[in-house]
Amino acid sequence: MAVDELPMILFTVISQMCVGAFVVLGLVQTVGGMKYSRRVVDRLADPALFALGPALVAGLIASMFHMNDVTHTFNVIRHWQSSWLSREIIFGVGFAGLGFLFAVLQVLKIGSEALRRVVAVATALFGVGLVVSQVMIYYSLVTVPAWSSWATWVQFFGTALLLGALAVGTAFVLVIARRQNRPASSQVEATNEGSYGQRLKDFFADRQVDDPQTGAQVAELMVGSVRACVVGAVLVAGALLVAMPVYVSGLAGSGEVGLLSVAHYGTGFAVVRFGLLALGALLLGVMAFYFAGFGTKKLRVLGFLMVGSFVLVFIGELMGRSLFYEAMVRVGV
Fold first, then answer.
1. Domain count, the chain
2. Contact 325, 8 (CB under 8 A)
3. What is the pTM for the complete model shown?
4. Is residue 54 part of a domain?
5. Chain segment 230-249, per-residue pLDDT in tens
6. 323 near 265, Cβ under 8 Å?
7. What is the spatial distance between Cα 60 and Cα 292, in angstroms, rounded to a whole number?
8. Which residues contact 244 (CB under 8 A, 6 or more apart)?
9. Range of the domain at 152
């Protein structure tokens, strides 16, 4: 494993996962809002928002260790006109800041729904800009054939969509499971009234109980969303499992430098990486799709499958990103 690149491995994978999860959440809120009330959609989607922030901040902090001196960050952003690295930092900080703002507005129900939608769209655009910047940092290096390839786009956006979908699906299942396990004495009627401080306290305590109709609709939305997330993850994983051999084959035919890069994809480490992807996304994902059909009756099994799928794929993506850095062989000096 490329231990020296561990900060960048963590940063790129975690940040791409957060971008993908935010986009998937937006799709759930948009599509779900066509069938269900805003309260039903928010009861499922809002708790997942606060899982993204800490993950992205952790990734940003990890990336700073790659610079040896974290104060160099401020020098890097001064060259945003010409440097994709500068743009990466700007988009990353913008995505984190706007995401936090949207979460606060959404949870506390501050401002109109239209305002929150504008902030959400801006956050998503900054997120996409972050991933594009990350791709271009490596894609623009024509002296590294393994990076200056269409496969860099596929790998980075594939990680975003794959982990984003699984993270959201897992979060939804855990949210419903937590609510099922609450003692009845701790539950209060769901409401958006009261001071902002009380709303925030109620949100994190998650003590609210819905009326039977709302509760049933939240569970129904969870099932549909989890199944959609699993289908999306399986499709992306399948595309990656097809695209990577094509990429490796093309790289092997590009000369001596390509062969040196390809050597890393023929190791046991690479076999385990793709095995985790197939096991986590395809096998456990298909099983999760099946058990989601039982709704809340098989929630414990569904939760185990979703968590297991996410963990295996996350580890696999970390290993895949390590292979990406290990494949760096320059043309010439």
1. 1
2. yes
3. 0.88
4. yes
5. 999 999 999 999 999 999 99
6. yes
7. 34
8. 151, 265, 274
9. 3-326
